[in-house]
């Protein structure tokens, strides 16, 4: 779409602010103690690579074979799949999460504290009156590192949550909306986007997903 995009107004609930502040303090403590950095790995820590279920027990765990998805999760036309193995698709979220990795490598049991990670969020929508409400289930969302852009027929968003996880969505909406009457609310358990319909059309779906690959890591 060539129609102009505008930034949506965002409100943040007090409980969401508290959750974010607690997460920041915990993150600072972890970094100060070396956890998530170059310090020791706690037994029971699961591999960070998408699709790998290996768990760290001791140093021998570092030698395990890691089968993972190097690509990004994609949601398109109701199907869910990994960008690295597009032939394997499903409409079921739980089945998608169980897809075995397509690449073999080395397990990663520690986060790079400076690196934003690819992430996946569950989302759904409902209609009430003249509004469509989109709920994205992300916690500890940082409003200073989010963007919500809207035109009458397109929504583009990027959300940073849990301090290091990044989720983005770009959708050509099923129907037209009035951007000036739309808004975003960041709540403790989710992000809620209220879209005001430009007409009385009933939406059978959110729209055509132009891209819901999560943002890749910066090189």
From TrEMBL:
Keywords: Metal-binding, Repeat, Zinc
GO molecular function: metal ion binding
InterPro entries linked: CHORD_dom, CHRD1, CS_dom, HSP20-like_chaperone
Residue span(s) of domain CS: 118-207
Domain of life per record: Eukaryota
A Pfam family of this chain: CHORD
Keyword Metal-binding: yes
Domain called CHORD: residue spans: 47-107
Protein name: CS domain-containing protein
């Amino acid at each position: 779409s060539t129609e102009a995009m505008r930034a949506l107004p965002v409100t943040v609930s007090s409980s969401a602010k508290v959750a974010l502040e607690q997460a920041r303090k915990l993150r600072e403590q972890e970094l100060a103690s070396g956890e998530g950095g170059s310090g020791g790995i706690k037994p029971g820590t699961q591999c960070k690579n998408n699709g790998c279920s290996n768990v760290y027990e001791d140093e021998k765990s570092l030698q395990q074979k890691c089968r993972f998805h190097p690509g990004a999760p994609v949601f398109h036309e109701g199907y869910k799949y990994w960008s690295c193995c597009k032939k394997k698709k499903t409409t079921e979220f739980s089945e998608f999460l169980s897809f075995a990795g397509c690449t073999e490598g080395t397990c990663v049991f520690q986060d790079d504290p400076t690196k934003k990670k690819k992430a996946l969020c569950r989302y759904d929508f409902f209609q009430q009156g003249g509004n469509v409400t989109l709920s994205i289930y992300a916690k500890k969302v940082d409003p200073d590192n989010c963007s919500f852009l809207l035109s009458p027929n397109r929504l583009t968003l990027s959300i940073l949550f849990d301090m290091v996880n990044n989720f983005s969505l770009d959708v050509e909406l099923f129907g037209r909306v009035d951007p000036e009457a739309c808004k975003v609310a960041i709540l403790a358990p989710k992000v809620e986007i209220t879209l005001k319909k430009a007409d009385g059309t009933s939406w059978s779906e959110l729209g055509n997903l132009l891209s819901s690959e999560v943002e890749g890591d910066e090189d």
